[in-house]
Amino acid sequence: MLETRSEPLAQRIHRESTQASISEIARLLQEVLSRRLTAYVAGVQDGKTVTRWASGEISEIRDFQVEQRLRATYEIVLLMLNFDSPGTIRAWFLGMNPHLDDASPADTVRNGDLQDALQAAWVFGIGA
Fold it and tell me: Which of 91, 98, 76, 84 is nearest to 10 (CA)?
């Protein structure tokens, strides 16, 4: 955990990410990242799945890892919205990141390295 992290902000964002419905999560991620990028980081084949989540057609995710990646991505996006615009956040997810050994945050989340991606988001936000 980064020592410079604002604990009240971290706690609030974490609580929001655990309490949000799949529909809420998918709607925000689809809006900020795009349907296709959201599907990629979640690890699902089709962007239509994201639309089904967002519409409430699918309200429960059976694959634990997919839901874990989706909620972690949501937590990262909520955090970053405190510091940056949606366009910057999307670019951050796609770009090579020196705090992730030049991997993109999108690849890092998809590969299940959720803590690393969250820490990189904090570093990016604090440095802004």
Answer: 76
What does the domain layout of the chain look like in residue ranges? 7-127
Residue 126 has a pLDDT of 78
Rounded Cα distance, 79 and 20, in Å: 14
Stretch (H or E) spanning 26: helix 22-32
Distances in whole angstroms, Cα of residue 26 to Cα of each of 53, 101, 113: 6, 28, 20
Cα distance between residue 61 and residue 127, in whole Å: 35
The answer to whether the beta carbons of residues 20 and 74 sit under 8 Å apart is yes
What residues pair up with 97 in beta bridges, in sequence order? 103
Task: Look at residue 102 in the predicted model and tell me its pLDDT.
Answer: 97
The whole-number mean pLDDT for each consecutive block of 10 residues of the chain, a chain of 128 residues, reads 60 94 98 98 96 94 96 97 95 97 98 96 83
